[in-house]
Amino acid sequence: MIQRERYLHRIIPFIDKPVIKVITGIRRCGKSTLLKMIRQSFVEQGVHEENLLLVNKDSLEFNWLVNAQQLAQYVKDQFANKDGAKYLFIDEIQEIEGWEKTISGLLTDQIADIYITGSNSRLLSSELATYITGRYVEINLYPLSFSEFLLFRGVSDPDKWESEFGLFMRYGGFPGIHHMEYDDEVVGQYTSAIVSSILLKDVVARNNLRDIALLERLTRFVADNCGNITSSKRIADFLKSQRIKGSVDTIQAYLSMLTTAFIFHKVNRFDIKGKRLLEIHEKYYAGDIGLRNSLIGYKLNDIAGQLENIVYLELLSRGYQVSIGKINDLEIDFIATKNNRQSYFQVAYLLANQKTINREFGALEKVTDNYPKVVLSLDKHLSNNRNGIQWINLIDFLLQDV
0.90 cut: is pTM over it? Predict the structure, then answer.
């Protein structure tokens, strides 16, 4: 297993601490493997295997385990008469009804150090989740970043980075693609199967949806408009023009379900001058660039949108909170915030002429604070500073050691 150091480092400070470690993310992004990595690290430290209990709800072995009472009894039985520190790992815990009360009880009774995963962003926002409020830390896991993609590919030669980035843009970051032939049809079938599984398990079944045709059409529309300012009314009007019924309220509800399942991420706009979040004209980005390509096909004429999506996910994986910036009538692609410090980013394909350069740098020049401001593009050789605004080659940025 290739170590995903970025996430392991975030978990390490909480090992053997009285908090539940909750790992969330889209299906097939590597949550199960991360649990196994953590478990294996305990084995290497000398913890007995019998003190490391892994419950994988995606496995047929645990099909019978469906409610909190069964979970509590099973854990107590497995750990009965065991000496030493004990560790509990539960994968896809949202499949167990009422899990929150049992997990809270196990923590209170100090039965084990607890690690759980889930494929639902509302895992911790239900009424039941009040049982563990203030007693957990959440680690958001994302598909492979480009630097992780190179690790999985075993590529360290800088001369190959550009061609590898082309593959990354085409196929995305689901770890499972690295077990397959790098072929459009093969990888396309795999990612399409992931999308279908997420839609059926995490959207349709979980919300008892009836209008699956509307959901599928909406999903493709949002995928095709990633990075564009979008509103529920605009989507409803488009669907109406296609003779597809869908009220604004229905569209809003379906969009919420899709973001809850991590298929898309909703990004709000922030008025830099007014220092406030705006409640309209948000954007959506795909939870993985390969997922987006499987929905609408790989489009060479939309490379700018794909690059934005990749940078957005990279910022999330680095632990930033991300919003879109608005200053007067100009737009800043991303405001990334961490530890109360901001950074501003503009993303472009190529700064091919002075007009493009002025547009990308000009928006950042309107921001008068002293936080870092960066323009990212695939250009290879540019003056890397203008009025304190830094230019960085986009691939070099993705490979920064952070």
Answer: yes
